[in-house]
Amino acid sequence: SQYQIAVIVGSLRSDSLNRKLATAMAAMAPPDFTFTQSEIGDLPLYNQDDDAHQCAAVKRLKSEIAHSQGVLFVTPEYNRSIPGVLKNAIDHASRPYGQSAWAGKPVGVLGVSIGAIGTALAQQHLRNILANLDVPTMGQPEAFIHAIEGFFDADGKVNPGSEKFIQTWMDSYVAWVKKHTT
Ligand code: FNR
């Protein structure tokens, strides 16, 4: 399709709610958009000594971002910030200096939590990081999703009321990506 979106999920857990949300969202995309999840669980811990010879997993992540028209972060909140695995992936793809994969990529940020504030603080931390990376991050609408019982049905589909809200978010994100794609 015309618009490729690299989806980065901030949780490695097999039953991750955020991965479920990312998967459900891919199915809600318009026909000219394809959402593909990027693997970050096999990246080594970032070490600046490796900048001159980045490993295959890092090159793969950077290439997936480079070949995308936008990036979608779907992340849990860990201790009022983003998970370390997500920061690790962001750091990897930002290097070597001057060869960041992130610059200019239109980004959307959202997350789901069993906690009432629905990843709000993690998302604010992520926005700080993305500002430094010269990324245009969509400001509104925000999506702080509180996953109560029944948020996902047995097939992983979002309940109809929440689906409507997420579809509205998706429509704005699609417009955001198009606006930043020349
Ligand atoms: C959490 N959780 C959590 N939730 C929250 O709303 N704010 C927080 O600061 C934290 N902190 C936190 C730290 C750590 C180390 C863990 C493992 C969990 C709970 C978290 O939202 C919940 O486990 C989600 O289900 C994690 O997302 P995934 O893995 O389901 O996508």
UniProtKB/TrEMBL annotation:
InterPro entries: Flavoprotein-like_sf, FMN_Rdtase-like_dom, NAD(P)H-dep_reductase
Sequence intervals crossing the membrane: none
Pfam families in the cross-refs: FMN_red
Domain NADPH-dependent FMN reductase-like: 4-146
SUPFAM superfamilies in alphabetical order: Flavoproteins (SSF52218)
Protein name per UniProt: NAD(P)H-dependent oxidoreductase
Source taxonomy: Bacteria, Pseudomonadati, Pseudomonadota, Betaproteobacteria, Burkholderiales
